[in-house]
Amino acid sequence: MPITNAYRLPALLALAAVSACVPLPPEPGFISVESEPAGADVVVMGKNLGRTPLRIRQEDVFPVTYPPEKLAQYGTIVLKKEGCRDYVQSVDNKVYVRGLKARLDCGARPSALPGGQTGGSTESAEERLRRLKELREKGLITEEEEKAARRRILNEL
User: Fold this and answer.
1) Do 117 and 132 belong to one domain?
2) What pLDDT score was predicted for residue 116?
3) 94 in a domain, yes or no?
4) 96 and 45, same structural domain?
5) How many CA atoms lie within 13 A of 138 on its CB side?
6) Whole-model pTM?
7) How many folded domains does the chain comprise?
């Protein structure tokens, strides 16, 4: 029996629904940030945007322009709360769509590092170098920016 026009649109819509499409977040352009316990400062590109729970703009995490010294902070959300370790999360499609739901480690004090940074990063040097390479391959940073950031990461070891 041939498929009639009346069945084509529903069939196409059903096919599109089960295909490998990337879902959109509830509010495109925004990322939901939550923490347990709540009330953590949300820091993006070195700037405190507020406290959890919070919705932040995608362009705050992925700005079009930024100073070269902030390259390592590009695409990263940091949650800071007194008495807890800093929680560092790279934003990928999963975080963009579902939001960031972080459980903070408040059993240990963060350790001080040079430059006013604090320890407790969930991202190893290897992960940071891999993310840096991905940014370069996507054309989001120049070769010079990649080399400078790579040197900084390796010098921290």
Assistant:
1) no
2) 43
3) yes
4) yes
5) 7
6) 0.56
7) 2
Q: In degrees rounded to 5, what are phi and psi of residue 94?
A: -60, -45
The b/e string for 59-93 (b: 16+ C-beta within 10 A; e otherwise) is: eebbeeeeeeeebbbbbbbbbbbeebbbbbbbbee
* pLDDT given for residue 28 in this prediction: 72
| 90 and 134 share one domain | no
Q: What is the pLDDT of residue 43?
A: 94
Read off φ and ψ for residue 66, nearest 5 degrees: -165, 155
Domain that holds residue 134: 124-157
pLDDT, averaged per 10 consecutive residues of the chain (157 residues), comes to 53 52 66 92 94 92 90 92 91 87 77 43 73 79 81 77
